[in-house]
Every structure is written in structure tokens, then in C-alpha cells.
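Write out a sequence, fold above all:
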Amino acid sequence: MTKRNTKAKQLILNLLKAAKSALSQDILQAQLGDAVDRVTIYRVLNSFLEDGVVHKIVGDDGKQYFACCKNCSDKKYQHNHFHFRCISCGKIECLPNEVEVKLPKAYRTLNFNGVVSGYCSNC
């Protein structure tokens, strides 16, 4: 089954690609206004997540943020890198270094979520 490229998907993807940091659903909603409803945004983000277009970050504030995947053509790619959340401006960004997590034999990683919080260079 082929997934349709809807106007909502394209609008959300354009915002995520243009963003210099990860975006939450409420940030996307504020930028989209009435063009796309809240439920559609969640549905599109989950679809992008399943398709490997974005990865999800759960911030230390409990919110979910989404960032476009770069060099992630392999759907088995693990996003084992830390993220930085500025406690002043709220920006969340991917940090460049991958982290190797050695698990005991027969353990499998399904998710990695590492967030460092502090002040960004602009704050």
C-alpha cells in the first residue's frame, strides 16, 4: 500500500526540515495555525516516525519533540545520540556524537533517549 503525500504531510515536513532544532506538536500547531488540526499533526508525526523520516526526543520537561533524520536511510538505524535542551529558550538540538551502549548478552535496544539540559550559546 502506498502512502499518500497530503498537503498536511508536506506542510509539517517543510517545517521540520527548515527548523534548526527539534519541534514539539504544540510548536508545529502554533506555526500551522488553522491549516492543520492537532489530531492530524499527531497522526503525521507518528507516520513520519514509523517511516524513519523523523526521530522522537522525550525532553526532560516531559514533552515529545521531533527532528528530521539525517543519513537515516536504514530503518534499523538507532538514534543513539544525546540531545541538548536549553532551559532558557527551550531549543532542543541533536548532539553530533553517537553513543555506544553495551548491553548484556540477549538484551536488545528499542529506544535510546538521552537529554542534557543547560544553557545554549545564545542564552
User: Anything to note?
Assistant: The mean pLDDT is 86. The chain has one domain: 7-118.
